[in-house]
Amino acid sequence: MIADTRASALAWRPQPVHVANRVHRAAAAFDVCLLSGVKSGRSGALPEIHRQVGSVGAAENKELIRNMFAELSKGNGEAFLGSMADDVRFNLIGTTKYSGTFNGKQELISKLLAPLSAQLEGGISITPENFIADGEYVAMQARGTSKTKDGKSYNNTYCQVFRIVDGKVKELTEYLDTELVTSAFGK
């Protein structure tokens, strides 16, 4: 029954622009992250997901995100940020000291990336594991490894949902273990 419900949510094709629809699209993409490793005994439950992946632009959008993180793994933060629109909207879920919505690259850098980097020893290594794309949306599962400057391990898991417009990341919502963020960095 759960597989049927999630498959139905994933089969739903969102309509553009509505704020309520953005929430549904993010929730559907999050379900994709949860389901990516699950096999269903019911025929037709997961094949519907795979049919949607072939949408126009999905392959190019998936490659953009793959390249962003490939460059970031080489230490090329400029290429990572260069893949984002100047007015990018970055949503970090939860109630941690880093949670919130950051509007534009400058706010993202000054209120999230710089303060977070200041607490990490040598940055963070993010390893993408799965990509799922549908039109202008790409969902990515990833693992991160790092240490805080006071020696605590910070090894989080992520589901990031990207919205790509005109070849740039316009919106990103990041789901992660918020309890681990608080444990590693405080409130």
Q: How many separate domains make up the residues?
A: 1
Instruction: Work out the helicity level.
Output: 40-55%
Measured distance between first and last alpha carbons:
39 Å
Structural class designation: alpha+beta
CATH architecture: Roll
The fraction of residues in strands falls at 25-35%
Cα gyration radius (Å): 17 Å
The string of secondary-structure elements, in order, is: HHHHHEEHEEEEH
CATH C-level class: Alpha Beta
Overall body shape = globular
Q: What is the name of the CATH topology?
A: Nuclear Transport Factor 2, Chain: A
The main sheet comes to: 6 strands, mixed
Which whole number gives the mean pLDDT?
78
Low-confidence stretches: 1-56
How many DSSP E strands? 6
Strand order of the largest sheet: 2-1-6-5-4-3
Number of helices: 7
Would you write up a description of this structure?
The chain has helices spanning 2-11, 19-35, 47-53, 58-73, 77-82, 105-118, 178-185, and strands at residues 84-92, 100-103, 125-134, 137-145, 157-165, 168-176. By secondary structure, it is an alpha+beta fold. Helix content is 42%, strand content 27%. Strands 2-1-6-5-4-3 form a 6-stranded mixed beta sheet, sandwiched between helices. It has a single domain (55-185), classed as Nuclear Transport Factor 2, Chain: A, CATH 3.10.450. Mean pLDDT is 78; it is low at 1-56.
